[in-house]
Specification:
Length: 103
Amino acid sequence: MHSAALEAANRSRDARFLSKRVRVEALGRKGRLAEISKSIGKLALEEPRAPGKLLNAAKQELEAKIDARLAALDNAALDARLENEWIDLTVPAPVLARAACIR
């Protein structure tokens, strides 16, 4: 599950998809990792902290990967916008025709 969520985060080209789908499905209150956390609490283990530590490490790694991917997508969107919206200030301004009614 962890590797599937990481793969989805890497493949995502849309920030909304990444934020809503991947983050909510994996890390949300009703997500897969929350279900695993609940099931760990029900187990009678000699060492109850070990699975919890692994789960928390997986959550932190996934959150970091999603945040990094969101930042990369935001930067790419900003770069594309800046590339398309630039103005060359060295080019002379166009000459405007004078209106006939203004004297």
